[in-house]
Write a structure and sequence with these properties.
Length: 401
């Protein structure tokens, strides 16, 4: 078994793990990333698309925003549709100019991987049977088996559990010490990627009796759209024609707007759940991103919450290594959870506002009333917009860079 020493071992090479590794590397803190999958798999995995304003700022601090600023689509707001109405939400104007950016998550991952290539910091792909040990000592260890079957042990000061909802890190926190909060929704999202120019300049969110629909974008020739479906829907059994017909119905307006159709090149169903584990740390282990929480994708907070956690964790680790002050590390969980729960609440609110559950007629009328409030009240729009573009991150790693 080969033995490796480092300061921070990061489990998982998604946005959370790669962004943490990048920021620590910029601060001169050595770290090693362990990833279960191949590089190609994680570079091609289609997921999130919308970046909050603070996430864009943090990617700039990490020095990985060149492609984002070149190819990202900076939005001034979004359109809300219900009962045939089209209502423009000027989120940038209502938040002092804070734009959101459509830039695919897999491009963020590629940008971070390229930066790691350049820095030469170690990353192991196809790391199998990752296991965490001795977390309650000053030198915790992580073992894994490489693609050739050889065993390895990494000894570090700290372990960052960034291995997503199905990773191994969360369960390394003793069950008696962790509390899990979960809410499951009675619907899912069927997401499609279509080779057709977007039919809209800005994002469209639609509330309809048949269910929620959304029109997003990926490039001038690629559209990303979502449909509310049954939670157990199998995407492979849903005909493309039905998808386009339903999207056309749910996005329809009274002014003749038309939805352009094209070949669907990718479709998948995402289950909808809200999940948080408390606390986010155990001795020398710190959880971040989907390893710690899951939000319904409605408000596009998943990837952005991962970045928010990393802003706090990276600053705390930098403070430890630069000044010896461990107060931020000791308070990581409390600090990160403040923003996590605010994002959880907004994601739940936006999901409940826009998704229709058949038979819940009283709730449907409340939804319509809430939508009307949002249309009528400028202050309600401003409050909604603050949460939509992203409340400020709590961490300030830039003070060490
Ligand atoms: P990730 O899951 O991205 O990364 C974890 C990494 O750890 C993965 O690369 C995994 O292979 C690796 N790993 C797992 N187990 C391991 C182990 N034992 N050892 C080593 N490595 C291990 N969010 C939005 O904001 N908007 C969206 O539209 C949206 N759509 C989504 C669609 C789908 C299908 C899914 C699953 C998620 C979606 N999300 C969306 C949420 C998503 O973007 C996450 O919030 C984001 O990827 C979180 O990043 P990480 O915390 O890095 O976790
Ligand atoms: C996306 O483009 O994937 C996206 C955008 C906004 C959302 C959710 C998903 O609220």
């Amino acid at each position: 078994m080969s033995s490796i020493e480092t300061s921070v071992v990061i489990v998982g090479a998604g946005p959370a793990g790669l962004l943490l590794g990048r920021l620590l590397g910029l601060a001169g803190i050595d770290n090693l990333v362990l990833e279960l999958r191949t590089r190609r798999y994680i570079e091609e995995r289609i997921r999130a698309g919308l970046l909050e304003h603070p996430t864009v700022e943090l990617l700039g601090i990490a020095g990985v925003d060149d492609h984002l600023r070149r190819d990202g689509q900076f939005d001034e707001g979004f359109e809300l549709r219900f009962e045939g109405e089209r209502v423009w939400f000027p989120t940038a104007e209502l938040t002092g100019g804070q734009q959101t950016v459509l830039y695919p998550q897999q491009e963020v991952v590629k940008d971070l991987l390229r930066a790691r290539d350049t820095s030469g910091e170690p990353i192991v792909f196809e790391a199998l049977d990752v296991a965490l040990h001795n977390l309650d000592t000053e030198r915790p260890q992580v073992t894994y088996r490489d693609a050739d079957g050889a065993e390895h042990v990494i000894t570090a000061d700290y372990v960052a559990g960034c291995d997503g909802f199905h990773g191994v890190s969360r369960s390394a926190v003793p069950q008696t010490l962790r509390t899990e909060f979960q809410h499951d929704y009675p619907f899912g999202w069927l997401g499609i990627l279509a080779e057709v120019p977007p039919s809209t300049r800005e994002l469209i969110y639609a509330h309809h009796d048949h269910g929620f629909a959304m029109h997003s974008r990926r490039s001038p020739t690629l559209s990303r759209l979502y449909l509310q479906v049954e939670p157990d829907c199998d995407a492979a059994t849903v005909p493309d024609e039905f998808i386009w017909d339903e999207l056309t119905r749910r996005l329809a307006t009274q002014d003749g707007w038309t939805l352009h159709r094209g070949p669907i090149v990718q479709k998948s169903v995402t289950a909808m759940r809200s999940f948080v584990v408390e606390p986010l740390q155990y001795k020398r282990l710190f959880l971040a991103g989907d390893a710690a929480h899951i939000v319904p994708p409605t408000a596009a907070k998943g990837l952005n919450l991962a970045a928010s956690d990393i802003s706090v964790l990276s600053e705390a680790l930098m403070d430890h290594y630069r000044t010896g002050n461990d107060e931020l590390l000791a308070n990581y969980s409390t600090t990160a959870l403040r923003r996590i729960w605010r994002a959880q609440e907004f994601s739940r609110h936006m999901t409940a506002l826009l998704h229709h559950v058949p038979g819940q007629e009283f709730e449907r009328r409340l939804q319509r009333a809430r939508l009307q409030n949002l249309v009528i009240s400028r202050s309600a729009q401003a409050s909604f917009s603050e949460l939509y573009v992203g409340i400020p991150f709590e961490g300030k790693p830039e003070r060490f860079l």
